[in-house]
Amino acid sequence: MSGTSSVGGPGVYEAGDQRNVKNSEINDAERYKEGQPNSHLANDSKDERSIANKLAREEKRQNEPEQISQEARDSQSDPTLPAKKHGNEPSKGAKIDAEIQQEEEEMLRKKGIKK
Length: 115
What we know:
The protein contains 5 helices and no strands. Helix content is about 45%, strand content about 0%. The chain has helices at about 25-30, 50-65, 70-75, 80-85, 90-110. The chain is mostly helical.
């Protein structure tokens, strides 16, 4: 066909950039990091795992201890601590939470429950 056309040069009709890769090259190619650990989100709605697989995963997760970050553990003891660590003034809600926590600890001390 390239010989009968009068539009453009013969390079336009040659399939130099459209050739397929050989099957031997495909099989030898390095895979792009297949099967990464934690690559699936457990609650991903678009994940194609079966319901049985999701149920089995949840059963395993019930036996695992819940992982809480150090910052979350610190904020349970002092609600204003995360903001202070980051060099910011604690929010109004964090200040109120700290006051409530302090009042509750005082009440427990008066009752003799907490030292």
